[in-house]
Sequence to fold (326 residues):
Amino acid sequence: MSFTEPQASQLLSTAYASGRFPHALLVIGDEASGTHKLVLGMIRLINEGTKGDSLEAIRDEYMRLVRPRSKSRKILIDDIRSVEPFLQQKADANHHKIVVILEAERMNDEAANAFLKTLEEPPNQTLIILVTSQPEQLLPTIISRCINVPLFSPGGSIRLTPVQQELLPAWAEATEHMGDDLAALSFRSVLLELLGRRKADITKRMTQSLKEESKAIAQATDTSNWESQNKDLNAALIETEYLAERDQAIDLMILWFGQAAAIASGAPSTEPMHPGVTQLARTMPVPEILQRMKGVEQLRADLKFNVHEGLCMDVHLLEALGNLNV
Fold:
């Protein structure tokens, strides 16, 4: 679900006040959506007294800014390594060491892999903030280690990921038949078929990449052990990327209900992703919209455990789309 900059700021401020602030954030959107403003506000909140009216203007011993600077407009491994000594320094009790990476999608492969190690074992009193308008270009393993904060662009428009774009027509059609159990189960079949195809595509792409990398080093070393180790890693990466795309599909459903509830409540500046959102807002009371959205949220929560994917979808998609009077 996407947020306006003030909404995201309030949620993060509440998390900080309650001691539940994450060590890594992925802020998604362009500068016009308020990404820089949000990050600047978080820095000032966490490190009180930080001066500067923009990210580029901050000159502070506890903050480092990384952005593309090479001729290729890439973030290189040296850019990532340059902040490692800073992160290992000890901060006083009232400050965090903060690293902000702008245009994070422009990390090259070496930089991304080096940065992943920092994300896996962040030093104490560290906050890492990545900012990107193209999260699909980041490694899935980086995305999975951050708390994602997607922002609406001006006017409330949103950027759908490829899997969301592919799923949108089927979801819109399913919501036209809200209250019909058969429509809910039909959508479940469409969703599982789509996710199956996406996983097959991910597997094919990553397996081919592993084979090409194996061939490249075959003449230089004994690759038998290397191949065995990296097959396990490859399988883990496939599963990580698949789960990220499944989450994106579920986020689409939650956002649909969230926008409908906002419109039905009279919230200003809500631009629906589809005419069906407005139609739902006109024909369904807010409590029922929120009840159905809760079904999708519970689907996402339950799928994080070792449950049967199809059966879990049966239960919760009926809650979201089916007849609630049964």
